[in-house]
Design goal:
The protein is an alpha/beta fold and about 240 residues long. Helices cover about 40% and strands about 15% of the residues. The protein is globular and about 65 Å long.
Length: about 240
C-alpha cells in the first residue's frame, strides 16, 4: 500500500477559501480546459485550494495550479441522489494522480455493500490517502471520524433524503458549529455558501476553511439568480 502525506495540506488550507471547479451537462465550461481556467482564475483571486470532479478534469487542474487539490468522482445511489467517490478504484486513481485529499461520501447510504464510515475504514486500510468525508449530519460526521476520516465537509447537508428540507434554508451553519465543537479533525463548510458574508459566517461558526463553488464557477446559474430576482421584482 502506498502511503500519502498526512500533514501537507492542513496549514495551507486553514482559514482560506477552496473553490469547487466543476461543470456538468451542457455548460460551455464542461471540459478539462474549461474547469482548469476556472481553477487558475480562482488561485489568482486568492483561493488556497481547489475541489475538482472527474479524472480527466482533475488531472488537468493538477498541472495548472500549485495549491492542494481535493479530488472526487460523482455517481448516483439507487434513488438518484449523488454519491461522492464510491469505489476503491476511484479513490486510488485520484490519490495516485496527486490529489492532496480525496473526498468520499460519508453518509450512511450503502455503496459496494458498505455504508460511508465502513467504506472510509476500508479506504484508509487499503489506499491510505487523506480522506475528506462529505456528510449531512452530526452522527455521520462522528462515525466517519471514528472510521479514520482526516477531515469533514458539510457538502451533503440538504442533498440526502433525510436532509432535503434544508436545501432552501441557506448554508447549514448549525451543522458546522456542532461538528467543530464535537470532533478533533478539520471541519470544512460547504453547501449553499453563495455570498462572501456566508463564507465569513461559516468561518465564525468554526469552519477550518470554506468551500464555495456555484457562486463562483457556474455563470449560467448565477445569471439565473439575477433573472429570477428581476422577474420577481416590481415592474418599472
Amino acid at each position: 500500500m502506498k502511503h500519502y502525506s498526512r500533514t501537507l495540506p492542513w496549514p495551507a488550507l486553514r482559514g482560506g477559501l477552496i473553490v469547487s471547479c466543476q461543470a456538468e451537462g451542457d455548460s460551455p465550461f464542461n471540459s478539462p480546459d474549461g474547469v482548469a481556467r476556472f481553477a487558475q482564475a480562482a488561485v489568482l483571486g486568492g483561493a488556497v485550494g481547489i475541489r475538482s470532479e472527474g479524472l480527466d478534469k482533475t488531472r488537468r487542474i493538477l498541472t495548472e495550479v500549485n495549491v492542494p487539490v481535493i479530488g472526487l468522482l460523482k455517481s448516483s445511489f439507487a434513488d438518484g441522489t449523488v454519491c461522492i467517490t464510491g469505489t476503491l478504484a476511484g479513490v486510488r486513481a485520484l490519490a495516485e494522480m496527486g490529489c492532496a485529499i480525496v473526498a468520499i461520501d460519508g453518509t450512511l447510504r450503502t455503496r459496494e455493500n458498505l455504508n460511508g464510515p465502513d467504506f472510509i475504514r476500508q479506504v484508509k486500510t487499503e489506499v491510505g490517502c487523506l480522506v475528506m468525508a462529505d456528510i449531512a449530519t452530526v452522527a455521520e460526521g462522528e462515525a466517519c471520524v471514528a472510521a479514520g476520516a482526516d477531515c469533514l465537509s458539510t457538502t451533503l447537508s440538504g442533498y440526502t433524503p433525510e436532509t432535503a428540507h434544508l436545501n432552501a434554508a441557506g448554508p447549514d451553519l448549525a451543522l458546522v458549529r456542532e461538528l467543530a465543537a464535537r470532533v478533533r479533525v478539520p471541519v470544512f463548510a460547504e453547501g449553499r455558501l453563495n455570498t462572501p458574508a456566508d463564507a465569513a459566517a461559516a468561518r465564525q461558526a468554526g469552519a477550518w476553511a470554506v468551500v464555495a463553488g456555484s457562486a463562483i464557477t457556474r455563470p449560467t446559474l448565477i445569471t439565473e439568480w439575477y433573472v429570477q430576482a428581476l422577474q420577481a421584482g416590481p415592474a418599472a
